Amino acid sequence: MKKNATASAPGKSRTVIIIILSAAAAAVLLCAVTNPLYTVFVTDVAYSDTVLPPLFFLLSKLLEAAFAALVASAALAVTAYSKTGGSKAALLFIPAAAVILFKHSLNLLVTLLLGGFDSYTPDDLVYTLLGAGTDLFIVCAAVAVAMPMTDALLRKNAALKKAYATAGGKKFSLLDGLYPFDGFPALKDPVLAGAGVFSLGIFLSLAVSRIIYDISYGAPESAAGYVDIAAGYLTDILTGAAVFTAIYFILKAALPRVLPADELRRDGGRA
Questions:
Q1: Which residues contact 270 (CB under 8 A, 6 or more apart)?
Q2: How confident is the model at residue 64 (pLDDT cuts 50, 70, 90)?
Q3: Residue 94: what are its φ and ψ, rounded to 5°?
Q4: What pTM was computed for the model?
Q5: Which residue has the higher pLDDT, 133 or 121?
Q6: Buried b vs exposed e over 51-66: b needs ≥16 C-beta within 10 Å?
């Protein structure tokens, strides 16, 4: 049993690494492709009135949400993996944090390449570090919720499993309540509770940024302006919901690859 678990460890780690690499790919597309092209299209009079600016704005928002969902999924998969026997799984938090720093650093680099390095100011570095720090804080908050919930669940399941075995009753899975998910959104599940905290953090960070911008810009001068403001906050809410939904499906695919296979089989394949 122990030998099999050890032999499968590289495959478990590989699953998390694939998620992290996918996040890095999303960051490259976002920072080096869609964001620069959006800036070009929105500022060039030849394209500003075409479909290209809203199209690339949407693509940037989708890639931003995809990046966030992938990073959170990697961190939460590591949490589930480490709590169910992956003693070195916590090391996988390092590349998860690194990809956040990579994304914000790349965004700064591309901005300076396009605008010229002579346009650099210390504020650029401050905003870059603030953005990366915010993302890291949200990820850590999600993990801080998921880890103790996972601990408590596994202790309870271990006791129940022992009781069932002693009584000669039905077999009980250590993963009951952790995986498979009991519907959607199933926020009582430890990893999905973490996903909920992460998605809420994403929404709050967007909303706070929007509030700061709205205050600095001033009150709208027309009804259309208020509609735009309302639409902006609605977009932030939908972004948070979309991130949670994406995390749900990513983890639904990833967790069977990182959790103990014997317990998954014993669970009977519920979905």
A1: 180
A2: very high
A3: -65, -55
A4: 0.87
A5: 133
A6: ebbeebeebbbbbbbb
Helix 190-217 to helix 52-83 angle (10° resolution) is 140
Contacts of 197 by beta carbon, 8 Å cutoff, 6+ apart: 141, 142, 145
Q: How far apart are CA 123 and CA 50, in angstroms?
A: 33
Question: The tokens of 73 are what?
Answer: 């999924």
Calpha distance 54→164 (Å, rounded): 58
**Angle, CA of 145, 151 and 152, to the nearest 5°:** 95
Separation between Cα atoms, residue 85 and residue 6, nearest integer Å: 10
Alpha-carbon gap, residue 150 to 154, rounded angstroms = 6
Tokens found for residue 129: 């570090």
* 133-147: b (≥16 Cβ within 10 Å) or e: ebbbebbeebbebbb
Amino acid of residue 262? D
DSSP at 220: -
- Using alpha carbons only, what angle is made at residue 9 by residues 8 and 11, rounded to the nearest 5 degrees? 70
**Helix pair angle (223-258, 52-83), 10° resolution:** 40
What's the rounded Cα separation, in Å, for the pair 172 and 174?
A: 7
CB neighbour burial string for 243-254, b if at least 16 within 10 angstroms, e if fewer: bbbbbbebbbeb
The model's confidence at residue 191, banded by pLDDT at 50, 70 and 90, is very high
How many Å apart are CA 175 and CA 102, to the nearest integer? 34
Q: Is 45 helix (H, G, I), strand (E, B) or coil?
A: coil
